[in-house]
Amino acid sequence: MHFQALGQGAPIVLLHSNASSVWSWSRVIGPLAKSNAIYALDTMGQGDSGKPSREYRVKDYAASVVDFMTAAGLGRASLIGNSVGAIIAVQLAAEYPDRIRRLVLVGCPCRETEEEHRLAMAATRARLDKNCVPIPRTLEDLRQHYVNVSPELLARVNEDQAKAGVWAWKSSAASHDCDIVSALRRIKAKT
Q: Could you tell me if 49 and 2 are in contact, meaning their C-beta atoms sit under 8 angstroms apart?
């Protein structure tokens, strides 16, 4: 699992959104590291982390983060997750409550109904080609999702999507298959 570590103090693990990487945290790692030990992870199949030989479910992503924490000597940590990273953080907090100090969820998709899941899957599928690989984004498309759009941002987003490849679809499918509402109810950590 690829990661970046910076700073000292109470550990915080950062989990990025789908088809992204540790780069997505580049503007916050430094400020957070002034008083914390920051660990930004590329989730499995994304960024520069390995591509597993089998499908991953959200519980598998959560277990891989726990394995990372164990290998890094982190007994407990705060987690900050964005989008699919938030779903992984919720699952981890629900399944491994003794490993979590605090939880910050950014843009956590909380779909309850079949219709909500169907619409989300259709929207995800529309951003993929026939091989389930992300279609490169455009500057105009990014303007709908980002405040400061630039050619450099576009290049980085498209690079991360290309690295994820079919794992962008696999990660989305896993997150859509997760009962996030049930997992949220089991969280004991400050959230």
A: yes
- In angstroms, the CA 119 to CA 145 distance is 18
Q: Label residue 146 by pLDDT band (50, 70, 90).
A: confident
* pLDDT tens digits for range 24-43: 999 999 999 999 999 999 99
On whether the pTM is more than 0.70, the answer is yes
CA distance linking residue 52 with residue 99, whole number of Å? 24
User: With 0-12 CB in 10 A as exposed, 13-18 as middle and 19+ as buried, what is 53?
Assistant: exposed
Dist CA 79 CA 95 (whole Å): 14
HSE (side-chain half, CA atoms, 13 Å) at 106: 12
